[in-house]
Design goal:
It is built from one helix and three strands. The protein is of the alpha+beta class. It has a domain of 53 residues. The longest helix is centred in the middle third of the chain and has 29 residues. This is DNA-directed RNA polymerase subunit M/transcription elongation factor TFIIS. One of its GO terms (molecular function) is translation elongation factor activity.
């Protein structure tokens, strides 16, 4: 009995592009989104301190967001969100 790999097969309904991703990409994508959320929360806290007149808060650097996060629900070819997904299992 061999090893099985489960992937998600995505097909774009607009351009016909087909691509696959696995659970590693899902976990990486989720982690990157959480990091961006943390950066947003930190920047909001800094902005709220500045609104109350806290001058030193102006010198706190902004947390940078990762703008290169792959949207797994969008076609990488034409950026359409008209995507169908299905689970595919490969025997290795």
């Amino acid at each position: 009995m061999g090893k099985k790999i489960e992937e998600t097969k995505c097909t774009c309904q607009a351009c016909g592009n087909v691509w696959y991703y696995g659970k590693d990409e899902v976990q990486k994508n989720f982690g990157e989104k959480l990091q961006n959320l943390g950066s947003d929360m930190s920047n909001t806290g800094k902005d709220m301190m500045c609104c109350t007149g806290c001058l030193p808060a102006l010198f706190i650097p902004e947390k940078q967001k990762n703008n290169n996060i792959t949207d797994l629900d969008t076609c990488p070819n034409c950026r359409s969100k008209a995507v169908t997904k299905e689970k595919v299992v490969h025997d290795v």
